[in-house]
Amino acid sequence: MKAEARIRFPLSVDISGKKVLIVDDVTDTGDTLKLSIGYVQSLNASEIRTAVLQHKTCSSFVPDFYGQKIIRWRWIIYPWARYEDLAGFTKRILEDGALDVSRIIYELKDRHGLEVGEKEILEILHDLAERKEIEKTEVDNLVKWQVRMK
């Protein structure tokens, strides 16, 4: 299921007649920047430019400025999004069945090339469980985690 881009925090200042630079970390699908431009246009900005840290050439949107061009698609994990990305990857791994912490760590490394410590993964697992997305089970004194049955 693909998340849809949306405006979560509308601007609280008047930008009509202003020059606006929209900055994002990456162009992946391009949906976020397209949506942002449409939103800023609706607020009557006089000029709109876009900039990203990394531009993936597979994107349907080409920004005005970028720091790096990514030719071959790959997942990019930014320090400010690591936790969120790891939680998503972990939940996807658990869709294959119940796993213990060491196997989850192994799968993150094997599938995504990510080095994750036990403390970090336990924090993520407890948060996912608190959000009722996964659950902890115990089989033969071995703690496993699995996607919560609905």
From TrEMBL:
Keyword flag Glycosyltransferase: yes
Molecular function terms, GO-annotated: xanthine phosphoribosyltransferase activity
Residues covered by the Phosphoribosyltransferase domain: 13-76
EC number: 2.4.2.22
Keyword Glycosyltransferase assigned: yes
Keywords linked to the UniProt accession: Glycosyltransferase, Transferase
CDD domains per UniProt: PRTases_typeI (cd06223)
EC top class, as a word: transferase
Domain of life of the native organism: Archaea
Protein name per the record: Xanthine-guanine phosphoribosyltransferase
